[in-house]
Specification:
The chain has six helices and five strands, in the order αβαβαβαβαβα. By secondary structure, the chain is of the alpha/beta class. A five-stranded parallel beta sheet has the order 2-1-3-4-5, with helices on both faces. Helix 5 links the parallel strand 4 and strand 5. Helix 3 packs parallel to helix 4. It is globular.
Length: about 180
């Protein structure tokens, strides 16, 4: 297989000039693109904002935004039942089907909580938990779920820093209580 790389050289000045012309065209037609008619004093752009400056909208997260829960499990039925229960209780749910996807989604999406199966393909729940605790200062709380009956596994998960350990099958109310306790909502 051969790959061909094509390089297109655009002059930044030409691109900036096109943008400027586009904006000028919008302003000439009376469309200000959400910009207020009277811009505030340039001092209002300093941080912290001086008193007397208008409050400008920000891209900050809304205080009422739903808490985000990442489900990491390879069993489609468990994912679906947990997803339905969590969404019915107002949580936003993200799904990963193996440990590697779980780590990648945790890094990219920064969930408020991770619900992690112990036995998964590619990377076990133990390895995911260990990596989260070792590499992230602000790692999210983790609830580990497993069908394994051994106390040795629970002790190892607690040593790695798991916040809650639930054995399958578990009552959904118990999981929801743990989620609420760890992230609120």
């Amino acid at each position: 297989m051969f790959f061909v790389s094509v390089v297109v050289d655009f002059s930044l000045a030409a691109v900036d000039q096109q943008r400027a012309q586009w904006w000028l065209g919008r302003f000439a037609n009376g469309d200000r693109g959400g910009i207020p008619k009277a811009l505030p004093d340039p001092a209002c752009y300093l941080r912290p904002v001086p008193a007397g400056c208008p409050v400008m909208p920000t891209a900050a997260k809304k205080a009422t935004k739903a808490k985000r829960v990442l489900l990491v499990d390879d069993d489609a039925e468990i994912i679906e039942s947990l997803r339905l229960a969590l969404e019915a209780n107002g949580y936003e749910v993200l799904v990963a089907r193996d440990g590697n996807q779980g780590l990648a989604l945790t890094e990219r999406e920064d969930p408020d909580l991770v619900i992690l199966d112990m036995m998964m393909p590619k990377r076990s729940g133990f390895l995911v938990l260990e990596r989260l605790r070792r590499t992230r200062e602000d790692s999210p709380p983790v609830i580990m779920i497993t069908a394994n009956e051994g106390n040795r596994h629970k002790a190892y998960a607690e040593m790695l820093g798991v916040d809650e350990y639930l054995r399958k099958p578990f009552p959904m109310d118990k999981l929801l209580e743990s989620v609420k306790r760890l992230v609120g909502g």
